[in-house]
Amino acid sequence: MTEETKETPIETPEETEETTPATEEAGEEEAEEEVKLYVGNLQYATNEARLREEFGQYGEITDVFLPSDRITGRPRGFGFVTFSTKDAAEEAIKNLDKKELDGRVIMVNHPRPRGETGGGSRREKEDMKLYVGNLSFDTTSDSLKELFEQYGTVSDCFLPTNRETGKPRGFGFVTMPTGEANAAIDAVNGYELDGRTLRVNEARGRYEGGGGGGYGGRRGRRY
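^ thats the sequence. predicted structure below, dont judge the formating
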């Protein structure tokens, strides 16, 4: 009589919690995206250290950039401050926009990406041409466009020159969608760029190559 052999059951691992690393919980938290702010109407003496001191009260700063004129090397009167978090950036806007820094009332807001249209409905509206007076001869169409692009889409920027000498005439024209143009008037009128206080309003009449008188209530200057 053969002895019945009992098979020993093969032990299989219990279906318990697998010891996988908890990467999502204990791992790195997803870094919050940095936020860059535009800072306008700066005193030329205001430097990077001064901006870090003032803006650093509201959070960690990862970068400060102060553009300078390519030819003269002089500050251009505006800059950019980048915060490590959105909350810090919003606090800086809340506390520093339209506040005085080094004797100047500064503007602090979110810069508009170049080429951003600001929404389809805006583009359906008629454009407005703005007159920009009291410009420095050092101001270029690029620097003027960059300033106004903080408030919307600039479709045209034109700085008239004297026909005989080729020198700038001290004023210019910027074309933007109506709603954005009105916001730019409020923000940029009285703003100092390249050492001159700008006068900004809606251009009236028709610009006839080299005229300029009657725009914004100012006479065209001759050089």
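The chain has a mean pLDDT of 78.
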